[in-house]
């Protein structure tokens, strides 16, 4: 079994790159090798994988200047080995350049042969010596290109953000996306209060803070052990969830005794929160097109002490009210989306998403919102949410919906002083990593007209 953290990082990145895998899946496929590493080596392996994915475009800009072979013609394994090693040289100060290069050459000999190892050695030594001479595009003349290289964003996306948000906001957003986010969780108030949980966490993590906008959130850094090994986790005292995701459920504002549909429940991050706000009284139907996710959700709900969830595998696009016994007081549709609002946590997505994905998912979101709307009772509430800041997946979905569905309107009467600063003038919830230090989310709270 491979024991070097750099070699394992290389394997994780190569299998992520070659197959249509998410980074999480690729990490899971290599979990046996990773679990045998010491704590320090695990941290290094993680830092290399995430670091390369965060800074890939900037690294490639430097590599291009020192490689006599165009990067597109270099095989995946040597290319990622170059990226991993250059990341260590440019962004980490704990490993001397010569040591990082020697290790890369050793790995290259094993994985790609002597000739490639020689090429890697030459490119890296040259890059280590001369990287300070590299220049960036002029931000005034080529703003999108500058953002793309300086902050490592694919050019199509830097162009889109520069157009949508302007140069300054895009730069701040990109800078924040490349930082390591705090870990945020939501207290399971069915079992413990937030203060007591924070106290327990202070034994195993640093920089414990109560979130400002989410009522039950706690954030922290530097866990001393894996989170799944926290005693509080094993006891079901919390669920990991970003502050923005918690606010979405606060916007739904479910009450005890109601009937709620979580139409895209996934692994149940928001379902658990709904149950808490309902004080474990009423009915929640947790639906998703992937039954495997619902199996996980069920076992997690048991651990959290929730008794009011019924799971239902459905394709929302092929569902009507006949598939349910009743209309719902509230429906949450946390729709499948590009995930471009959570690049800080999932930097792999920026290299796998494309412009077409935005259009394709926006079309699906419109259909799903319409289908979910048919399940809301007159006078009931429908919340649409996505973890993306793209207009096509945000306002455009809602405007298309409201143009067609005259039986719905934006619920302007809902008041929450606590997070009114996060609401736009049109009463949409919008969060950004740079301005709010949260994931980028969009949510709209809609109300179905009562029968007159
Ligand atoms: C953004 S995720 C939901 C995350 C979840 N609500 C949470 O907070 O953990 C979107 C979910 O929609 C589900 N989905 C995609 N297409 C669907 C469809 N046609 N019908 C029902 N669910 C669907 C996906 O399987 C995925 O779990």
UniProtKB/TrEMBL annotation:
Enzyme Commission code: 2.1.1.176
Domain SAM-dependent MTase RsmB/NOP-type: 173-449
Domain of life: Bacteria
InterPro entries in alphabetical order: MeTrfase_RsmB-F_NOP2_cat, MeTrfase_RsmB-F_NOP2_dom, NusB-like_sf, NusB_RsmB_TIM44, RCMT, rRNA_ssu_MeTfrase_B, RsmB-like_ferredoxin, RsmB/NOL1/NOP2-like_CS
Main location: cytoplasm
Catalytic activity: cytidine(967) in 16S rRNA + S-adenosyl-L-methionine = 5-methylcytidine(967) in 16S rRNA + S-adenosyl-L-homocysteine + H(+)
PROSITE patterns: NOL1_NOP2_SUN (PS01153), SAM_MT_RSMB_NOP (PS51686)
Pfam short name (any one): NusB
Chain segments annotated as coiled-coil in the UniProt record: none
CDD domains: AdoMet_MTases
Subcellular location: Cytoplasm
Sample GO molecular function, one term: RNA binding
Transmembrane segments: none
Entry keyword annotation includes rRNA processing: yes
Positions annotated to bind S-adenosyl-L-methionine: 288, 334
Record-level GO cellular component terms: cytoplasm
Membership in a protein family: Belongs to the class I-like SAM-binding methyltransferase superfamily. RsmB/NOP family.
Function: Specifically methylates the cytosine at position 967 (m5C967) of 16S rRNA.
Name of protein: 16S rRNA (cytosine(967)-C(5))-methyltransferase
Organism: Desulfobacula toluolica (strain DSM 7467 / Tol2)
Gene name of the record: rsmB
